Amino acid sequence: YTEGQRKGLGIAWAEPLYVIRKDAAANTLVAGTKAELAGSMVRAENTNYLVPFAQWPETVLLRTRFRQPPRKARVTRDGEALVFQEEAPGGPYAKGQIATAYTVETRDGEERLRVLGGGVIS
Length: 122
Fold this sequence. Notes:
Elements: E1 18-23, E2 28-32, H1 34-37, E3 39-49, E4 59-63, E5 71-78, E6 81-90, E7 98-107, E8 110-121
Antiparallel strand pairs: 1-2, 3-6, 3-8, 4-5, 4-7, 5-6, 7-8
């Protein structure tokens, strides 16, 4: 199981449940609703930059899941980690997945997403 996982839990409930956290030492899996998993701040470590951070805008587009539409977030650094604060509650954030920052770039009259960098959600 991974944090944020919804499918394959085998738990019947009034609404979909998600993995909130795992405790390997106690062999315990904690599940909850999407509201319990949602948040507006995400921290990413083991960062990788395609554009130096000093050149990033203060507000970027953030994607924390593959097919998720990018959402606006303010970004700061905490040591080597990136800290994203979304304008509206987002998530669910899955520890170990990738948080990627983008900006919109216009080239040949066409708007495209440009990857700035990202890191592993911690």
